Task: inverse folding
């Protein structure tokens, strides 16, 4: 491809001397042809430098998520810690890790739900469990968690706990917004930072460990009407990528997951489909690629969405914003209508 430039120059010089024309008049007569050559070179450059590695990356991700066996995580340590583990994606991580023989420490708000999930895991997978009931919207819980986890051989930490808005809404109009936004940041970000502070030093000492951080597609670009939620997820992306780079040489895998919709309480989607997987299907797909990918959508369709959003952000930065807006505005309108009907 680099050969195009000297080749074109040679052709021009040869023509100049054979027709006894000035360089300028020849260039002017060949202008359309030169444009075609220039456009072709740029197109070939873009395909080789950008598209082929991207397509290779997408194909590689699909291969891992479809065909790789789920690794034996026990070799990283005896226990897995999962935050927000009584429902949805967190519960699915806890069950899948237990299925592979890990003992599980479950952290969530409601003690009775924790005890139910723990009993179910112990009975089904014949592993040990511990439960810690904590509210991650509080900041005074970490000393207790530190004490409870002290001295345990932790191989995997899943920073999954998260909360969102009750429904998409303008920043200043979110009901009880001051408290809601404080809770969102404390639950989605402070929990991840503090749980990592508690668990990572021992992992670094033994030079192995896996930290799985749950972000969201909405962390990849600003999201109108879910602005604070999306901002907390952008923090997760930045935090995880920085941490991965700091601790790669110390044997620690930091795996960032940016899912699209999964059929859970948070998304409010009850029926799973090929674009909205069940939490179990999503987690199995993600665990297959933990050792191979530092950042993934977690599920094949969500990988494509991640690449699509990146592409839009790069080519037309405001287009992803508009797509989000047109998707969320009707959901907001429907939620407000329902609220009004209830008040009648
Ligand atoms: N579902 C999706 O479509 C989707 C998409 C992108 C990203 N994500 C991310 O994936 C993660 C899990 O989402 P999910 O859909 O599985 O959520 P979910 O079904 O609502 O489950 C949330 C879990 O977190 C616990 N929890 C919530 N608030 C808590 C608090 N303040 N303190 C302690 N525990 C708390 C809940 O337990 P209790 O009920 O016992 O409190 C529950 O076990 C979140 O980080 C979310 O942002 C989800």
Result:
């Amino acid at each position: 491809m680099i050969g195009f430039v000297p080749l074109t120059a040679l052709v021009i010089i040869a023509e100049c001397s054979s027709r006894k024309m000035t360089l300028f008049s020849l260039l002017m007569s060949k202008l359309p042809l030169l444009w075609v050559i220039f456009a072709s070179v740029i197109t070939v450059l873009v395909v080789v430098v950008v598209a082929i590695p991207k397509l290779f990356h997408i194909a590689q991700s699909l291969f891992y998520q479809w065909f790789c066996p789920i690794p034996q995580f026990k070799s990283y340590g005896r226990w897995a810690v999962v935050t927000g583990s009584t429902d949805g994606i967190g519960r699915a991580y806890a069950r899948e890790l237990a299925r592979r023989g890990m003992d599980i420490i479950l952290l969530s708000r409601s003690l009775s739900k924790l005890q139910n999930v723990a009993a179910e895991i112990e009975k089904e997978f014949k592993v040990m469990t511990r439960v810690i009931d904590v509210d991650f919207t509080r900041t005074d819980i970490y000393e207790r968690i530190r004490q409870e986890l002290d001295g345990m051989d932790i191989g995997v930490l899943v920073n999954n706990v998260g909360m969102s808005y009750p429904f998409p809404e303008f920043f200043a109009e979110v009901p009880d917004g001051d408290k809601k936004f404080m809770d969102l940041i404390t639950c989605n970000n402070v929990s991840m930072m503090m749980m990592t502070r508690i668990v990572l030093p021992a992992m670094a000492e033994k030079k192995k460990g896996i930290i799985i951080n749950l972000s969201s597609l909405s962390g990849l670009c600003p999201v109108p009407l879910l602005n604070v939620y999306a901002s907390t997820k952008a923090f997760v992306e930045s935090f995880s990528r920085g941490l991965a780079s700091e601790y790669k040489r110390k044997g620690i895998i930091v795996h960032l997951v940016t899912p699209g919709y999964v059929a859970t309480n948070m998304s409010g989607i009850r029926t799973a489909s090929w674009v909205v997987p069940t939490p179990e299907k999503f987690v199995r797909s993600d665990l297959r690629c933990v050792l191979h990918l530092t950042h993934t959508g977690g599920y094949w369709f969500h990988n494509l969405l991640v690449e699509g959003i990146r592409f839009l952000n790069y080519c037309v930065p405001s287009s992803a914003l508009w797509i989000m807006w047109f998707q969320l505005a009707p959901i907001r309108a429907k939620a407000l209508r329902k609220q009004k009907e209830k008040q009648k």
